[in-house]
Amino acid sequence: MASGPERFLAATAHLPITPQRMPDSTHTAAEAAAAVGCEVGAIVKSLVFVAVHSDDSREPVLALVCGDNRADLDALAAVVGAGIEKADANTVKQATGYSIGGVPPLGHPAPVRTVVDRDLLRFDTVWSAAGSVYDVFPATPQQLVEWTGGELADIGSR
User: Fold this and answer.
1) Which of 1, 11, 82, 107 is the most buried (most CB within 10 A)?
2) Average pLDDT rounded to a whole number, residues 72-100
3) What pLDDT score does 76 carry?
4) Superfamily of domain 4-157
């Protein structure tokens, strides 16, 4: 089976994405910012949650949050119209095809409902995981919204 970065590259080959391998881990937003040389806020945290609907159906939701923000679960629940639970590592891998720390905002085996932290718009360039804790790629926040089909919302808090 192909590695996470190889699968990400194949899934996004139609887009102008150039992943970069970092010599140090980018597992956390602080580590990624240090590796890339940018503000922590310009790191995109790809966080998977589970929306629990009134009929007890469940669906994964991907929140793309500024590295210096926390995901506001009440705000996320209001956007998706469902209760929000944290996803476990197995759910993250099942929904996105990637392990925690290397989850990219796109390039998943099947579409995942995505909500994008409006606060990312304060940056010209943001950096996201590209399939592993060592691989990242730059994009504009507008490109991420377009490529993910994500909904812009105020889902981050400091």
Assistant:
1) 107
2) 96
3) 98
4) YbaK/aminoacyl-tRNA synthetase-associated domain (3.90.960.10)
